[in-house]
Amino acid sequence: MMIQAVVDIDVGVEYGLAKALRICKECGLEKIASDSIKRTIHTLISGDVEEKIKCLSRIAGFFTVDLRLFVKLCSLDRKTLKSLGVVPYPKTTVGTSRVLGYVMMDGTTCVVEKTSKNNVVLIRALKSSSAPLIIEPSMYLIQAYNTEITEKILKPLRTLKSLGERLENAIPRVCKQTSNLEPQRALIHFSLE
Fold first, then answer.
1. Helix (H, G, I), strand (E, B), or coil: what is residue 112?
2. Which of 45, 81, 104, 181 is deepest in the core (most CB within 10 A)?
3. Nearest Cα to 123, choosing from 79, 61, 90, 76?
4. Which domain of life is it from (predicted)?
């Protein structure tokens, strides 16, 4: 399980961009991109997201945060996902998107998506309390000024953490059940031939 946050900061006009970049370094951020013309900072936060966002909130400006939870599963088949509590999206609804399904956690809808990594899923909290038919990218984003951003990320961040812990506890049991079924299927298939 790994939680990341992609953060974009529109630095306030009266606030210096160089000063904002110094604060980013003080907060322990390593991957930082800035644009001096647009006065924006883009960064990826791993580790203690809450503490780093608190540290960054000293920068006067407008924040956009995309919280992400990455979890490695044993398989991405529908049976495994259902065993983990993921409600699959109908194939006709989603079409060719990467969305596998959703999980309701603490009154929040968390969308489960495929990644390019083998059996790794990306889970993000929606601002909606129900699963919509079409998921716009903006539905994942948390936006607020620096004085409010820490408060706004707390609920979705805690939801993702508790969901990650729940999945980590369930994955060994579910994977063991799936691996026990595979040899039996192979044996039955082999004996019929």
1. strand
2. 45
3. 76
4. Archaea
